[in-house]
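re: that complex we talked abt at group meeting.

here r the seqs, copy pasted straight from the sheet so there may be weird spacing, ignore it
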Amino acid sequence: MSLYDIIFYLFAAITISSGFVVVSSRNIIYSAFALLFTFFGVAGIYVLLGADFIAIVQILVYVGGILILLLFGVMLTNKITNVDIRTGSIHVLPGAIAVGIILGLLSSAMIWTEWKTQPSETPVTTTTALGKLLLNDYILIFELLGILLLIVLIGAASIARREQE
Amino acid sequence: MSLHVGLTHFLIVSTILFSMGIYAIVTRKNAIMVLMGVELILNSANINFIAFSKFGNFGLGGQIIALFIIILAAAEAAIALAIVLNIYKTFTHVNIDEIDNLKE
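got the structure back, here u go
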């Protein structure tokens, strides 16, 4: 059992245990903060997979952006003065059974499939190669995503603004 | 499946994350919790893409797709939260099992 394996199991434990807190906690604030640790764990797994740039983007965008956005959503949609930030669940038992079946099927498929693994060479820094790919092979999708972000910005602002009386 | 970490281990972690996201989506009442479930699912898909990008020796295509998924997740979160805020303004709560009208 090498150091790589130990670090993998550490990050997997962080990701899965905090993910479990996310889906099972009754207090939505606890869920949001557990989601922070889940994202950090996933970023660690990215580093182990040799994707250093994606890991940094994960921390910047998810932890710095999306999680803050979700926290704003939590704060703005609960009556903080009444301290009622608990949230209920519905259909817990059928949901758990269905998810258990999904988990069993998917993981047995993952385990019993003979994947043709051919590990790439020693991990190198990927930033330069990713930038070249983005501006050569994937330039159309890159530009389209820029337009999409502009549309999303305008759309979110126009959906969420208060109507003038 | 040996103890030495290989492709299967990453796939199993991503499968567990995916199942937890599905569970959050189907059982939680609060719309923000449903959004968190969607984020968990997108993360599990990203782990799969990057794992196959490394172990399949396909080059960096999987990492590019993961980057695009992260951008789409950010866009989705912004739009969904705008909609959730509008729902809150209309109904004064965000419990998705009680919201069955498009307008008041």
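couple things i noticed - Chain A has a mean pLDDT of 86. Chain A has six helices and no strands.
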